[in-house]
C-alpha cells in the first residue's frame, strides 16, 4: 500500500540535502502525515557536546509522538525487525551510518556489502520508509583517502537506493525539489 503525502504517493522515499538544508525537518513532516506509531531510527552517536546538542534538538522537535531507536551500525537488521510494527519508519541519517561503518574499520568491500544489504531491505519494506542522507559529492575533492572513500561510498549508496525507492527529493534552503516520483498523482 502506497502512502499519500501532498502531491506524492510513495512506499519508500530518499530525502537528500546538504548540512542544515532542512532535509530532516522535511522528512519528519512527510512522516507525520502517516499514522502513528512512528519510528525514528537514529544513526548518530553523541561523541561530543555539540553532537549531543544536535541530537537533543532533533528529539525535542519530534516530541513524544515518535519512538526513537539509536542504531549506529546494524541498520538493515533494525529496519527488518521493525516491519509491520509502525505506520512509518524514518532513518536519519545514512551518511552518519557510513561514517560509523568506516570508523569501525569496515573496508570498501564491507561498506559496499552493507549498502547492498540495506538496499535489499529497503526494496522489500512493506512499512512506509523514509531515508535521510547528506549529499556530499558537490564539494571539492577531499585531500585524503578516507574522505574520498566516504564521499564515493555515499554517492554509490545514494544511487543504489534511488533505484529502489518511489520518491527521491533534494532539499536546498528548506525547499524540496522532486528528483523522482514514480507514484505521482494525476
Would you kindly provide a brief summary of this structure?
Helix content is about 40%, strand content about 25%. It is α/β, with parallel strands linked by helices.
How is this structure best described in words?
The chain has one domain (3-181): Rossmann fold, CATH 3.40.50. Helices cover 41% and strands 25% of the residues. The chain is built from six helices and nine strands, in the order βββαβαβαβααβαββ. The protein has helices spanning 23-31, 49-62, 75-82, 94-103, 108-124, 145-162, and strands at residues 3-5, 8-10, 12-17, 38-42, 66-70, 88-92, 129-134, 167-172, 175-181. A hairpin with a 2-residue loop joins β8 and β9. The longest helix is centred in the C-terminal third of the chain and has 18 residues, at 145-162.
* Element order: H for helix, E for strand: EEEHEHEHEHHEHEE
Average pLDDT figure = 90
N-to-C terminal Cα separation, in Å? Answer: 18 Å
Biggest β-sheet description? 7 strands, mixed
The CATH architecture classification is 3-Layer(aba) Sandwich
Structure keywords:
globular; alpha/beta; Rossmann fold; 186 residues; two-stranded antiparallel sheet; 25% strand; seven-stranded mixed sheet
Give the helix/strand layout.
Layout: E1 3-5, E2 8-10, E3 12-17, H1 23-31, E4 38-42, H2 49-62, E5 66-70, H3 75-82, E6 88-92, H4 94-103, H5 108-124, E7 129-134, H6 145-162, E8 167-172, E9 175-181
Parallel strand pairs: 3-7, 3-8, 4-5, 4-6, 6-7
Antiparallel strand pairs: 1-2, 8-9
Helix pairs in contact: 3-5, 4-6, 5-6
Amino acid at each position: 500500500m502506497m502512502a499519500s503525502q501532498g502531491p506524492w504517493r510513495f512506499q519508500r522515499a530518499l530525502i537528500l540535502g546538504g548540512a542544515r538544508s532542512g532535509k530532516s525537518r522535511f522528512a519528519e513532516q512527510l512522516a507525520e502525515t502517516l499514522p502513528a506509531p512512528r519510528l525514528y531510527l537514529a544513526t548518530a552517536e553523541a561523541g561530543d557536546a555539540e553532537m549531543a546538542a544536535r541530537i537533543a534538538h532533533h528529539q525535542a522537535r519530534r516530541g513524544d509522538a515518535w519512538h526513537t531507536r539509536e542504531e549506529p551500525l546494524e541498520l538493515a537488521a533494525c529496519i527488518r525487525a521493525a516491519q509491520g510494527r509502525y505506520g512509518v519508519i524514518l532513518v536519519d541519517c545514512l551518511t552518519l551510518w557510513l561514517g560509523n561503518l568506516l570508523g569501525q574499520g569496515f573496508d570498501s568491500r564491507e561498506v559496499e556489502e552493507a549498502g547492498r544489504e540495506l538496499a535489499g531491505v529497503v526494496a522489500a519494506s512493506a512499512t512506509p520508509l523514509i531515508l535521510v542522507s547528506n549529499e556530499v559529492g558537490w564539494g571539492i575533492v577531499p585531500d585524503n583517502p578516507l574522505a574520498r572513500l566516504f564521499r564515493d561510498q555515499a554517492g554509490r549508496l545514494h544511487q543504489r537506493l534511488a533505484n529502489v525507492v518511489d520518491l527521491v527529493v533534494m532539499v536546498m534552503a528548506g525547499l524540496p525539489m522532486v528528483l523522482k516520483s514514480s507514484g505521482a498523482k494525476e
